[in-house]
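S., here's the first fold you wanted:
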Amino acid sequence: PIGSVEVSISCSSNQRSVSCSSEGDQIIYNWTLNGKILEQPPMDGKTTILLNEGTDGNISCSVKNHVSHVQKTISVKPCP
């Protein structure tokens, strides 16, 4: 089974990145922003995607494998 899913946003001088991490075997990650599929990162223990400057709304990291499925959604806000 998949462990807890953690989603976090980090800001640097010119870009934002969103990281999703979870525990489990043969994990597949899917990202959606406001219900639209963004991309499917590789299967590994942690994955990060970059966001465009004007991106806002709700971003979801969906984590699944052959045993279970977990999704976590956070609100994307502009960097300070």
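And the second, which I think is the more interesting of the pair:
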Amino acid sequence: MVVCGLACWRCRWLLPLLLGLAIIMGIIALAGRGWLESESEPYVHQASLWESCTRTPDALNWNCESLMDYGWGRAAAATYLVGFVILVICFALAVIAFSIEILRFNFVRGIGGLLFVVAAFQIIGLVIYPVKFTEDILLMGDNMFSWAYGFGWASTVVVIGCAFFFCCLPNWEDEVLGNIKPTYYYSSPERAPYLN
């Protein structure tokens, strides 16, 4: 029977896999056009991290305006993108750290610290965007922050969780490396009645 707890050597690839999942969600957030969308028909507004597109209810083509013309648009895109780049670096470092047979636990804690920096950058970008967007862009109809924006927050939540685990992993160094011998509790049949 294979038992795999939170901190065991066989399960060391769970944290890099979670970071990979955060990267995939970050790519979807960066490339997705669903940061802001019209809530109901007629669909007259959609926006990404990079641009805001509108159309009249009877038109087929979207008229897009770059958000990079606004200071807050550049700030939101830059902070989220910097966080994403650091996340990719952390993923590469995690793969290297867990590939080495002799795991360097101070190195792992450093990755956790970098992941907190990633979360800070991403949160800044994710907060700047809706606040300034609703102030500076004329919204038509009912709008909602949609699926791509949600993927940005999901990536950030996974990064925060991984950061805690990377920082706390050195506390379980012996368990991860398998240096602790199991404890067995045994009582002989003659002594069993006295234990009850």
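Why I say that: The helical segments are 14-31, 71-99, 105-136, 147-168, 173-177, 192-195. Residues 1-7 have pLDDT under 50 and may be disordered.

Talk tomorrow,
H.
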